[in-house]
Design brief:
- The protein is mostly helical.
- The chain contains seven helices and six strands; from the N terminus they run αββααααββαββα.
- β3 and β4 form a beta hairpin.
- α2 packs antiparallel against α3.
- The longest helix is centred in the middle third of the chain and has 26 residues.
- The radius of gyration is 19 Å and the shape is globular.
- The termini are far apart.
Length: 199
């Protein structure tokens, strides 16, 4: 059965780091357990097309060891990106180690970018069947967010042990939860029980 992933961050780099459930708890839940999971997540998030997913999967089947190496880089990058974003949310100093991991992947991505032509338009991108393609795309999106002027809209869910991140696009900038139907309802239920409890 195909996994269904959550896309609540209003930015795919945030949805990427949110592929660990209950990340603030002692027992986080891993949702990306293989390179195939990464491909499926990317397809569901419309980061890549169905045809690109097929091409990357075929390349991974031909190069199993290399795809596993790329997947380990993906997990390492995700951890550093999450810690960078959390530092920004908490107004803490960003770790030099995390920034180094980020910059290493950014440098690798930029060194492999190419100029392509489609219907007389030129654009820069990476080869569709490259095993690095998904990681490079995520790196570009994360870099764009980190250098944006609206980082005060970057927030962490107030749900207990949740830890998921989101970019607050609400009109009053008061969004508190990753999803009102999930952590929001749990918090409301908890407050309701607390009011009803005997004193």
């Amino acid at each position: 059965m195909t996994k269904t992933y959550a896309f609540i961050g209003n930015n795919l780099s945030l949805d990427f780091v949110n592929t660990v459930g209950y990340i603030s708890s002692a027992n986080p839940a891993e949702y990306l357990n293989s390179f195939s999971d990464l491909i499926e997540w990317s397809k569901q998030g419309e980061l890549i097309s169905d045809d690109e997913a097929i091409a990357i999967f075929a390349e991974a089947e031909r190069n199993v060891l290399e795809s596993e190496k790329v997947f380990q880089r993906v997990l390492k990058f995700r951890k550093s990106v999450y810690d960078i974003f959390r530092s920004i949310v908490n107004r803490e100093e960003i770790s030099g180690k995390d920034l180094s991991v980020f910059n290493n992947e950014l440098s690798r991505a930029m060194s492999k970018a190419e100029i392509f032509r489609h219907e007389n338009e030129l654009f820069w991108d990476w080869k569709n069947n490259s095993l690095d393609r998904i990681l490079f795309l995520i790196t570009r999106i994360a870099a764009q967010l980190l250098t944006s002027s609206d980082l005060e809209k970057l927030k962490c869910c107030s749900g207990e042990n949740c830890g998921w991140l989101f970019y607050d696009t609400s009109k009053n900038n008061r969004r508190q939860w990753c999803d009102m139907r999930d952590c929001g309802n749990l918090a409301k239920a908890k407050r309701f029980r607390a009011k009803k409890a005997p004193r």
